Amino acid sequence: MPKGEGKLIAQNKKARHDYHILETFEAGVVLQGTEIKSIRNSRINLKDGFVRVRNGEVFLVNVHISPYEQGNIFNHDPLRTRKLLLHKRQIRQLEAESKNAGITIVPLKVYIKDGYAKVLIGLAKGKKEYDKRERIKPVT
């Protein structure tokens, strides 16, 4: 399956509106206990999330996964930082690109592929305020 295909769980439409997506990467997510059950119930919010590269590792920050309703004491912290699984070559590329001014890494969508939760992340460059109106304006 190509990148971004599988059962779509959540999508960050705001990211495509606010940023030009330069390149995308598919990453696995390290989850705890009941997090996968919450994700399969579509209880995830990517809106304010971003990706940070630290010490040769990639982390998903500020993504809200709601606690699983039947999870009792084994539930997780909804806003915890989650590690992403990528190849070293991809991590080095992300780290180099994100050091450039105006480039950030944002999560675009979460989906289930072959039974595993995957995150499509993108290298993004912020749009100017006036660009948004120009993009929406109908062509005459």
Main features:
40% strand, single chain, alpha+beta, 7-stranded antiparallel sheet, 140 residues, two-stranded antiparallel ribbon, 22% helix
The chain-level structural class is: alpha+beta
Helical proportion, percent range:
10-25%
Distance between the termini: 38 Å
Strand order across the largest sheet: 1-8-9-2-7-5-4
Count of DSSP-assigned helices:
4
- Mean pLDDT, to the nearest integer, reads 86
Give the ordered list of helices and strands: EHEHEEEEEHEEH
- Major β-sheet annotation: 7 strands, antiparallel
β-strand amount = 35-45%
Overall strand count = 9
The dominant shape is globular
Residue ranges: pLDDT <50 for 5 or more in a row? none
Task: Tell me the Rg in angstroms.
Answer: 16 Å
Walk me through this protein's architecture.
It is a single chain. The protein is α+β, with helices and mostly antiparallel strands. The chain has helices spanning 13-18, 35-40, 88-98, 129-136; strands at residues 7-11, 19-29, 44-45, 50-54, 57-61, 64-65, 82-85, 103-113, 116-126. The strands form 2 sheets. The protein has a 7-stranded antiparallel sheet. Strands 3-6 form a two-stranded antiparallel ribbon. It is globular, with a radius of gyration of 16 Å.
